[in-house]
Amino acid sequence: MTPAPAANSTSLSVAERMARLLGVVPWVVEQDGAHLDDISARFDYPREQLLEDLEQRLFFVGVHPFTPDTLIEVRIEDGIVEIQYADWFSQPMRLSPEEATRLLAAGRSVLDMTKGSGRGPSGAEDEAAPLVRALAKLRLSLGSEGADSADYIEVSLGNAPSHTLHDLRRAISGRRQIEIEYYSQGRDAMTSRVVDPARLLSHDGAWYLFGWCHRARAERVFRVDRVRTLVVLDSDAEVDLPPGPSSTLTIDSVDRTVTIRLAPEAAWAADYYSARERTEHPEGSVDAVFAVASESWLARLLVQLGPQAEIIDIHEAIDPDLRSATAARMLERYRR
Questions:
Q1: Which residues contact 187 (CB under 8 A, 6 or more apart)?
Q2: In this structure, are residues 35 and 3 in contact, taking their beta carbons and an 8 Å threshold?
Q3: Considering Cα of 83, then 86, then 92, then 94, what sign does the dihedral take?
Q4: pLDDT digits (tens, 9 = 90+) for 29-71
Q5: Cis peptide before 282 (omega within 30 of 0)
Q6: Model confidence over 109-136: pLDDT tens digits?
Q7: Class of domain 252-335
Q8: Does domain 162-248 match CATH 2.40.128?
């Protein structure tokens, strides 16, 4: 057999590699072995990344207790790849009602991303249809009682217009710039921005867009439900941010901080809001260092604590008059 020409050397994202690998495994098993170059060309899978995934990732796929009989076996000799399923995988899968219900909820989470768009997560027409059929079969497997219970499962990954999410996914997959009108809650103002979108994340009931903001000239995170208008531009994205999975939104990743001296009556705030550092004084006051992911959060905290909180040090990017400005704005709204 003459090896097919190797696929292009374009580097794939983690998600793209995973999607290809899931297709490679059953195909190679069905072919009873295949040449590396044939696999690379057929699945548009760069040879170096394919070899790395076969030798350093797939080789370790299995189930507890991860003994040889529970791991997938991969053999590569003279460029020929042979894959053999572990003994465990040859047995019919039997899910407990709890496991099946969890799987059903996870599947519905994926469907929630396509709600209202008629498209799958990557934008292809009818891409979600196989998942819909699989979930229908899974629901039937639960029996009448289990299926009735499953009907009470409602999954929502966050509130955001489906057409906005669809346009964002289209821009990300096509590496196109977007122009958005965005409401900044911290500044209580609308701004127009050109963004190179990189990835979407659902976190704590809200959708977030990671991308390079040309207005700020830095990577920024935008709440999708605060995007008022969005236009996918014809221009290509200029900044190449990692498209794959990112770290979730955590307070440890925030670099803006504020140091507040809390009166003894307000010392509870250091524990309640997980201060990064704290210095206790003999009279009971506490100097607490807080990470500031949102100026609106800090504004609410300062207004809530009132005179029991004194700002000692504040990041240069945060408005030092944030408390008074917020209080004035709240008073103005109350008067209306």
A1: 295
A2: yes
A3: negative
A4: 888 899 999 999 998 899 999 999 998 888 778 777 777 777 8
A5: no
A6: 666 655 544 344 444 445 567 778 887 8
A7: alpha beta
A8: no
